[in-house]
Write a structure and sequence with these properties.
Layout lengths: L2 H21 L6 H26 L1 H23 L5 H26 L4 H30 L5 H23 L7 H81 L3 H15 L11 H16 L3 E6 L9 H20 L8 E8 L2 E9 L5 E2 L5 E2 L7 H13 L2 E7 L2 E9 L3
Parallel strand pairs: 1-2
Antiparallel strand pairs: 2-3, 3-7, 4-5, 6-7
Helix pairs in contact: 1-2, 1-4, 1-5, 2-3, 3-4, 4-5, 4-6, 4-7, 5-7, 6-7, 7-8, 7-9, 7-10, 7-11, 9-10, 10-11
Length: about 425
């Protein structure tokens, strides 16, 4: 067996593992997934190269599905969050991509072309195809992933599985090199598979649009609920202010009545009672913007009830560079997410929630909370969760950032999880 065959196999295997990584709904961080996948690729590749030397190329070609495909599937079983038919679809897709990249070069060498031309064609086809898979196919695929049932995935797997059987029977056992008709059949099957994947991509895009619309509806419903909560908070605040005014009117009337009657000592006692009741406002004050202050007062009350230590520094200006209701929704979502993280911590001094607002050339807001030390980020470094009923708050904050041209930064700092928002002010 010569070096060209080994190089072909290395390129084919590397391409297949890259496709598996692109389509993998990872349950680990990117670096950890890449590290495990890299080790698996090295081990599987080394074993197959040694096996080629040990049993010969023809027998190894017949064992290829077991030594490469199935072992790759087992590896991805431990790396992917989704199991079963979606994982099988990923493997079959990786095989189809390998076929698309390999078959033109194989046909060329059959017609008398040099082996290095086969390698060159593989490299030329690999880069744009992987780029398309990552930028276009992967987002649509991941959006459609939770929407398709088992029956749908079974039908989607049936098409590439049929091609794989044809490819294996006619090519992997070496028969195709003896009959040009075999290569023609494989080529036609490959064209059909390319057309089928075009339809699959169209289907995924449709489901992706549906998922996006559903996500927008969920965010809108959540924002409406948050708006109702904000209105209710402001209504309760206004009611409390009306009660203070009512009590103040009675105090002043009683004091005036006592002064007219000459009972100065009783009037002074009323003044002392008035001072004791109203010397400290019962509603905390968070910045100069009354709407944001009222919302923060309401939502931080829940954190205080959980025993969290609350810290607020800085000031929010009365005039904001964005819609105050939209910003209030950001605060409510961020604080709700923080409270959810605090609930996972044992009661005590470890529960902390800190808010810092800097009103400078840009409005900078940082909301930090203690957490249990584990958080999962996506490729854009935005936190993600797979718990039912959670995650919409983060998406709503991201929607706010896009609508207002704001900059979002999530990071962990020791035992604290920090969200920083930078909002540019209008010139």
């Amino acid at each position: 067996m010569n070096g060209w065959i080994i190089l072909r196999y290395l390129l084919l295997n590397a391409t297949g593992f890259t496709v598996l990584f692109i389509l993998c709904d990872r349950k680990y961080a990117v670096k950890k997934t890449l590290a495990i996948l890299g080790v698996g690729f090295a081990v599987i590749t080394a074993v197959n190269v040694l096996l080629q030397y040990a049993v010969g190329l023809e027998l190894w070609g017949q064992l290829f599905p077991f030594t490469t495909n199935i072992t790759g599937l087992v590896l991805m079983f431990f790396l992917s969050r989704n199991r079963g038919l979606p994982l099988l679809f990923n493997l079959l897709t990786a095989i189809q991509v390998g076929g698309i990249i390999s078959l033109p070069g194989i046909a060329l060498t059959y017609l008398g072309g040099a082996v290095w031309m086969d390698i060159l064609i593989r490299l030329v086809l690999t880069v744009p195809l992987l780029f398309w898979l990552y930028r276009a196919f992967r987002p649509a695929y991941l959006s459609a992933l939770p929407l398709l049932g088992t029956g749908s995935w079974g039908l989607l797997c049936l098409m590439p599985l049929s091609f794989y059987i044809i490819f294996y029977l006619l090519l992997m056992n070496g028969e195709a090199t003896l009959n040009p008709l075999y290569i023609a059949v494989i080529a036609l099957a490959l064209v059909m598979m390319i057309a089928a994947y075009g339809l699959i991509f169209f289907l995924f895009c449709k489901y992706s649009q549906e998922a996006s619309l559903k996500n927008d509806r969920d965010i809108l419903n959540m924002q409406v609920r948050a708006l109702y909560n904000q209105v209710d908070t402001m209504r309760r605040t206004e009611e409390q202010i009306r009660l203070y005014r009512h009590d103040m009117r009675h105090y002043t009337m009683n004091i005036a009545s006592l002064l007219r009657g000459g009972d100065i000592e009783a009037a002074l006692r009323f003044v002392d009672q008035f001072h004791d009741k109203f010397k400290e406002p019962s509603i905390p004050h968070y910045g100069s913007n009354p709407t944001i202050s009222a919302i923060l007062s309401s939502y931080l009350e829940r954190a205080q009830e959980m025993g969290a230590r609350i810290s607020f520094q800085g000031d929010l200006p009365k005039k904001l560079p964005c819609d105050e209701i939209a910003l209030a929704t950001v605060f409510s979502n961020a604080i709700e997410n923080a409270c959810h993280a605090l609930e996972k911590l044992p009661e005590g001094d470890g529960r902390r929630l800190e808010i810092v607002c800097v009103n400078g050339p840009q409005l900078v807001i940082e909301i930090a909370n203690a957490f249990d030390g584990y958080v999962e980020f996506d490729e854009n470094h935005y936190p993600i969760t797979h718990e039912n009923g959670h995650g919409l708050g983060t998406k709503s904050i991201l929607a706010f950032a896009k609508d207002n041209g704001a900059f979002l930064d999530y990071k962990t700092d020791g035992s604290m999880f920090r969200l920083r928002i930078l909002i540019n002010k209008a010139d």
